[in-house]
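agent> fetching stored inputs for the nicotinamide-adenine-dinucleotide docking request
agent> found them:
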Amino acid sequence: MLLKIAVLAGDGIGPEVTDQAVQVLETVASRFQHQLQVSKYAVGGAGLQAENDPLPAQTLQGCLAAQAVLLGAVGSPAFDHVPGPLRPEAGLLRLRRELGVFANLRPAVCFPSLEDCSPLRPENIRGTDIMIVRELLGGLYFGQPRSTQGEAGQREAVDTMRYSEPEIERIARVAFELARGRRRKVTSIDKANVLDCSRLWREVTVRVAKDYPEVQLNHMYVDSAAMILVARPADFDVLLTENMFGDILSDQAGGLIGSLGLLASASVGGRVALYEPVHGSAPDIAGKGIANPLGTILSTAMLLRHSFHLEKEAAAIESAVAAVLQAGNRTRDLVASGQPFLSTSEMGGKVREALARKI
Ligand code: NAD
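agent> prediction call returned; pasting tokens
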């Protein structure tokens, strides 16, 4: 099969982790006899530097012409003071909107060999296997109007949370469909005791649930969900959330399973799907060769599964990652201070070796 993939490395640790992920894809392509065609484009701060645009036209065209997009991360302190639309993050939001990817799937699975890396007691994190389904194109990150106005010292800023029934319905259906193939539980997160958007969210979710009688639906306020997530994470199966709540809860889930660097994501439902690790550009460790590439590598497994229906190939990557961790290989984020660890490229190399050995 020909696999045409646009790769947007982005900023900070983005290039370091995508480089390892692309090499893993090359290993998979050679083992399973696929032809990999990778085209690289600039995004975020890299786009601003090259074209003064966080999403250059050529990048968007390249993504729309590909069968799947793999992205590292965007964000750079060099652009922290520029106006909103010219920030690196604006390029990623625009890309998601242009691709139409409204459903962000963020699995948070505790690898048995990493139980000790969790800040929770092993018996509390054991068995955690959550699929976070986050709405990606609505809510506070896109709602209009938004502005900052007024005299210095008296300024006022406004963001708008807005959701329509069709937007809620389509993301709810994604969650219920996924739950069918899992443990058949959807927990819908909202703040219906305070927010109108959340009350509509709850109403629509209840309506959609009627089409999935085999799936159990329950509702939870986001504050309570944050608490249950640290107390009993293994209770959750599919966690359905609006945009910002999902952003926050999925980072929390990353902390729980040992490191944000382990989390993969797929953004689907549009013209071309987008795959990226959950973490950001991590400027604090960029360029040091110590970033964990596994979240990006696991994103390539999601890419092969969702965009190409290559289940064996996806499972091979996931098994290789599990085997490498089981053998005790760790990047810096997964060890106590002073303990030995592998570099980004050494960890990528271990995964490729495991893949080549058909583990
Ligand atoms: P971050 O995810 O970049 O980093 C948070 C912490 O996790 C840091 O201590 C970092 O060193 C660590 N970390 C992250 N990924 C890691 C990895 N692969 N291996 C080891 N450690 C890792 O979040 P932040 O610091 O809040 O944001 C930094 C920049 O990234 C900002 O500009 C932000 O806007 C941007 N950001 C981008 C995305 C994205 O591209 N999807 C997501 C979140 C944040």
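agent> quick read of the result: Residues 119-257 form a domain with the Isopropylmalate Dehydrogenase fold (CATH 3.40.718.10).
agent> awaiting further instructions
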